[in-house]
Write a structure and sequence with these properties.
- By secondary structure, this protein is mainly beta.
- It has two domains: 63 residues, no CATH class; 76 residues, OB fold (Dihydrolipoamide Acetyltransferase, E2P) (Beta Barrel).
- The longest helix has 13 residues.
- The N and C termini lie far apart (40 Å).
Length: 152
């Protein structure tokens, strides 16, 4: 995995936590994350590559690049994490859901694999699937709309 993908995954995970600060340092790379706990408007992310080699740090404003993460009832179910999406429980199995299916609250819609962990994305309420936007074995981004739905 390249550094950009790794950093994005770490940022996405960090933004979904209650942590105010986090620092990660590995050889030739340091990532420092901090949230402004008084406001949701701004967080600071500093990335340093070539630590010790005199490379400059860059600061990113995630509020300008982070996708919307809220679940909009009756509209979309969005990816809670960055990872690989699986629309079926196995390679030769039927998909969890198809367009037109009515799904009960808590029923799995898909699985997203992130860092070797399988994470079920379940229906937040009883819904009808209007459109499936994700594809099997494809990368999805944090906040990416996976399903267009209608609340039942």
């Amino acid at each position: 995995m390249d550094n950009k993908k790794l950093v994005k995954e770490i940022i996405d995970i960090f933004q979904g936590t209650d942590l105010a600060n986090m620092e990660i340092e590995i050889p030739d790379f340091r990532l420092s994350l901090s949230k402004n706990t008084n406001s949701k408007e701004h967080s600071d992310i500093t990335i340093q590559e070539g630590v010790g080699g005199g490379h400059a740090a860059s600061t990113i404003d995630p509020s300008k690049s982070a996708p919307e993460i809220a679940l909009s009832p009756g509209e979309t179910v969005k990816s809670p994490i960055v990872g690989t999406c699986f629309v079926a429980p196995g390679p030769d199995k039927d998909p969890f859901v198809k367009t037109g299916d009515v799904v009960e609250e808590g029923q799995p819609l898909c699985i997203i694999e992130a860092m070797k962990m399988m994470n079920e994305v379940c229906a937040p309420y009883k819904l009808k699937v209007l459109k499936v936007n994700c594809e099997n074995n494809k990368m999805v981004e944090f906040g990416e709309p996976l399903f267009e739905v209608e609340k039942c």
